[in-house]
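Per reviewer request, we include the raw input and output of the structure prediction for the construct analysed in the revised manuscript.
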Amino acid sequence: MTRRASADLPLHTGSTPRWLFDRMVDLGGAISEAVVEEYGRDELVRRLSDPYWFQALGCVLGFDWHSSGVTTTTMGALKTALSPQKHGIAVVGGKGATSRKTPDEIDASGLDISAETRDELKRISRMSAAVDNGCVQDSHVLYHHTMAISETGTWCVVQQGMSDSTARRYHWLADDVRSFVEEPQTAICAQERRSDPLDLTAESSGETRAVSVDLVRDDPAHLKRELRGQRSLADFGSDASTGEAAGDASEGERTRIDLTAGSDLTMPDHHRLRRVDVSERALDQLQRAYEYQPDDYEELVELEGIGPGSLRALALIAELVYDTESSREDPAKYAFAHGGKDGTPHPVKRERYDRSIEYMRSMLEGADIDRETEQSSLERLAKLEQ
């Protein structure tokens, strides 16, 4: 059964000490090389897409088990350590502005791949970011995006979003993606569940995705009336649940009664309506989408300018007018590989931890690294066993 996973991690400020990062590069490179030699480069890419293995790797490299920095620093260390010439793998992307350079870095990576494959990888980079930012609306905004790419064309995406107090990590793997807009991630795991998410990638949101495309392909003037109807609904405030209008809608807008005329829909949650982006900019973006006439939801999400607000607005219209279903269940399932010594987010599972230690020990003993680094790493593992 396919897992979907990300991780909620506390946001920690500051930067990694240079002495630690340099050692993370050395040890991360050695462990990666051992995996490549033993199992092949595609297997290393696959393991990076597994949030459990990724978390264990970050811990063995010496980073805090529950810090947001384990994502950015581990991928940064691997980006420095891995090269197509030696390993047949490149890591591209990064944090903030660097994440937007991913397409250029794919071109400059030195990977022995065709121009067609490079173009497809650029599209995958854009789509994975657009989906986790716009289709999985869980209050986290992406700020870190990386890809690990093998010369065989196998890839994984490791990206992270930020909310007020936590960061959430998302993993993708080429082999697991059957559709970019229906449960494409490898797994989603989290320390805590979100109370009001909107998961447009859920299988149960399929009808909402289909109606959203129909709305965009329809007469844009009709679509604008629907969107402005949402604005009018939001203005009702707490009166929206009373069954009576709080006042006349302004010209060009639709009232609550107009919007639900001829249907047996229950009244919508006005709090949800307030969060829908119905700005003129959103209307203009949907007008351009109409002119493009996307064939399906994937093409709609891929269009420049179509973001979380537009997708949420379309989903809400589909719910209110056409009685479709959109998943409000947080797709995050689980948080960390081993748990914490204080029982947070759950007690440590000793047997699983021991297996991880033994695996990492075998990797270290077979790795081509200097004796000091190997010894210090083995000592850290020994402390974990006590």
